[in-house]
Amino acid sequence: MAAAASAGYADSLRRANLRDVARTWELLLLLTVRDVKLRYEGTVLGFLWTLAKPLLLALVFSFALSRVLRIEVGDAPYVLFLLSALFPWTWFQSSIQFSAGSFSNNAALLKKVYFPRFVLPFSVVTSQLIHFLLSIPILALLLLVAGYRPGPEWLLGVPLLMAIQLLMLAGAVLLVASFNVFLRDLEHLVEVLMLLWLYLTPILYPLSLVKERIGSIIYLNPMATLIQAWRDLFLYNQLPGIEIWPALVFAVVALVAGSIAFKALEGQFEVAL
Amino acid sequence: MRSPYSEHDVIILENVSKRYFLHSQHIVELKKAILHLPAFVKANRARQPFWALRDVSLTIRRGESVGIIGPNGAGKSTLLRIVSRLAPLTKGKLTVRGRVSPLLELGAGFHPQINGRENAVLNAVLLGLSHKEAKEKLPEILEFSELGEFIDQPMRTYSSGMYVRLGFAVAVHVRPKILLVDEVLAVGDAEFQHKCFDHIEKLRRDKVTIVLVSHDLENVKRFCDRAILLNHGVVAADGRPKEVVAEYLSSPSGFAAASVSQADH
Lengths: 273, 265
Description:
The structure holds 2 protein chains of 2 kinds. Chain A is an all-alpha fold. In chain A, 76% of the residues lie in helices and 0% in strands. Chain A is built from 11 helices and no strands. In chain A, helix 1 crosses helix 5, helix 2 packs across helix 3 (78-99) and helix 6 (153-182) runs antiparallel to helix 7 (185-200). Residues 1-8 of chain A have low confidence and may be disordered. The model of chain B is unreliable at 261-265 (pLDDT under 50). In chain B, a hairpin with a 2-residue loop joins strand 8 (226-231) and strand 9. In chain B, helix 9 (241-250) packs across helix 10. Chain B is α/β, with parallel strands linked by helices. Chain B starts with 8 loop residues before the first strand and ends with a helix. In chain B, the strands form 2 sheets. In chain B, strands 5-6-7-3-8-9 form a 6-stranded mixed beta sheet, sandwiched between helices. In chain B, strands 2-1-4 form a 3-stranded antiparallel beta sheet, covered by helices on one side. The A-B interface holds A 5-6, 9, 16, 19, 22-23, 26-27, 29-31, 34, 37-38, 41-42, 106, 108-109, 111-115, 181-185, 267-268, 270-272 and B 7, 20-21, 26-31, 81, 84-88, 99-100, 102, 104-105, 108-109, 111, 113-114, 118, 121-122, 125-128, 130-131.
């Protein structure tokens, strides 16, 4: 009798755990959808801003860099060269920037209801991912117009690179959002650092340009290899090879560091928020 | 090893202590930290520990409704925050069996730009329902909230009364196994309070475990079948509400409570 009762209890506990996992995913989904909806809420163009913003940005950059500074990027038109890197970069940059305040700006919620807190910064990453995914067809269309032929390699390459970048971001946003609770300066610092990172990464200029001058030191920037992989995939249907290892290493390091920081700091949220 | 607790025990605290620090700087302002580093370090060294709960052991069984009473700063709210997992323990062990729904604040996480319907669903999932359950409960929630057409309006257009009504409607329909109620319910008009207590009474009949923190000793006598008196972070008395309330009122710190109670009734 007692054994049966305790077995029943263990069973209900397992069910409860499964339920918690399922609910965490649902929460992530609901918050993602909300974040996507809220991003351009109240604007006239609404959702179109997702596409309009990087396109306009591309026009600005291409005017400044290919007309004024005359950077040589090889055979591809500069706008396509730029967008093939700028779209994935925008996902990276805005995820980190927008999620920095995920914990510190949700004090009321975090102090009153218990739920798996990491869904807050993660939902920013996933909502930005949706914006990125929606920009891929636009890029494909522009490529087609310019005479490029997006190939079946995309079907393998996009999920692969997406997964690597997703892991990177998961770790990075946990790290930044957790520390930002205690050091709110971080939010502002991150904004500037991301701009610096943009210029350190071969997005506006080709990888070959810096490789000639500074050599393999460029590989210390994990985004350099990842962005190059995105560009090779989008422009030349080229699947990533072993050369993206810095991005993989960074993803693992970020994930471990992010989880440790979050675990260590989460308990202090209640007094710091 | 056999646990001394039965499966009917839904909340078990074993030697639970909770320490806070007074006057400590939790949020670091970079400028202050750098410019006033010696002062900053000194302030952090001088921080005073404050034990909100000391070595508290207690067991709450399924279906019990327990009132937590005691003077200000006795650790009542800390206890609720610990059981709802909002505050980690400093020492000891906590076991909670079943979904806990903290009724500490109504409408936590409502977003002003989103309409009432979507906010209700998200709020219900935050409080512990699955998405499917939340959607199933939605018609009931909407009816209970009496918001009518406003339900599809963004919540920034709501009056504070409407806001609370929707928050309460969600809280009512998130059938928890364990309901934690803080004094928040003392806010709002008489009608609203009445509605809250009607609901708590109903949950009690349904064998939901209820832990109620209140300064209103009459309510504790009325709604609880057990009362726990906390004082300076320790359990000073635990038993039938009438007796525990009497003990509280006869203690030095109880005088103030008695006069407040007199003024209320």
